[in-house]
Known about the structure:
The chain is mainly beta. It is built from no helices and 19 strands. The protein has strands at residues 5-9, 12-14, 21-24, 27-31, 34-36, 43-46, 49-53, 56-58, 61-62, 71-74, 84-88, 91-93, 96-97, 106-109, 116-120, 123-125, 135-136, 143-146, 160-161. The strands form 4 sheets. A 7-stranded parallel beta sheet has the order 1-4-7-11-15-18-19, with no helix packed on it. The chain is globular.
Amino acid sequence: xxxxxxxxxxxxxxxxxxxxxxxxxxxxxxxxxxxxxxxxxxxxxxxxxxxxxxxxxxxxxxxxxxxxxxxxxxxxxxxxxxxxxxxxxxxxxxxxxxxxxxxxxxxxxxxxxxxxxxxxxxxxxxxxxxxxxxxxxxxxxxxxxxxxxxxxxxxxxxxxxxxxxxxxxxx
Length: 171
């Protein structure tokens, strides 16, 4: 049996009290959509595959110790290479991780290569939280960026340029 899949196109997810979208060992394509004003985080991805394309994730809140007010990836007990988030031409703006101050835009836990977060031509910003980290990750989690437009202030996260040895499909 194949994994379940979901496609959201020109959709608004707002007002959720347990997060905007939960992905659990599934595939989700979110395109030309908005995930906004949810508590419990914007998008929570546990062992799944997320593609975020031409979308906005904004004004979501989370209180996770791992971060992820906007997008959160959980990789404990997942299949090899999972979870993943391919984020292209999207904006992750003004999300917050209340009380922890880390990972306002993106947070990860137990995510190992080849899984992880892959950013392309996207904006990560939380200007109303200037002293807090935009991204938070556990040591050895994978977050790669390939963009001249990706915001370079990432707090505690260290980004690497996408290496030729990694063969990632273009979104």
